[in-house]
Amino acid sequence: MESPLGSALTLFFAGYLFFFLSSPSPANASAQLVDGVCQKSINNTECMEVLHSDPRVKSASTYILLAQVALDLAIGNAKDSQAFINNLLKSDPTEPIKQCASSYGLVVASFQSAKVEIYEDPLTANYDVKIAGDDAGNCETALNSKGVKYPELSARNHVVLLYSSIGDVITGQID
């Protein structure tokens, strides 16, 4: 016959095993976070593609960890777009392209600032992420106001707006 202590230990370990097996794994927690974020972003499908393009997302089990990855992606994209615009400026130094070059300096700075702020002041990080999208919108407005058509640049503006939306959702969840 089992002692009361033995029965208690058996129940404890059975409960622990149930908790351990029923708790979400880090990958499952990450998938739930990403799914929730992308459903609230401006484009669920594009959001999923962007976030799942980085293998670090699989281990991002908190909003702060997911914000780090998303903002790294956003910064990399913004810097690449800034270089594209600076090269374009050499062959087309028109006012709309100059405005876009200026706007993308601000886009990069806003995403970089947001990454620093996610730890110290998530509300400011959220604001910075939104401003980055506004700056890309300013570039698109400058192009449209002068009838300038650069589909690749417009596509880049759209991607910044996507990153801004993703960052807005994520940073809005950080306590």
TrEMBL record:
Residues 1-29 form the signal peptide. It comes from the Eukaryota. Residues 29-170 form the Pectinesterase inhibitor domain. This is Pectinesterase inhibitor domain-containing protein. The keyword Signal applies. GO terms for molecular function: enzyme inhibitor activity. InterPro entries: Invertase/methylesterase_inhib, Pectinesterase_inhib_dom, Pla_a_1-like. SMART domains: PMEI. Keywords: Signal. Pfam families: PMEI. The lineage of its organism: Eukaryota, Viridiplantae, Streptophyta, Embryophyta, Tracheophyta.
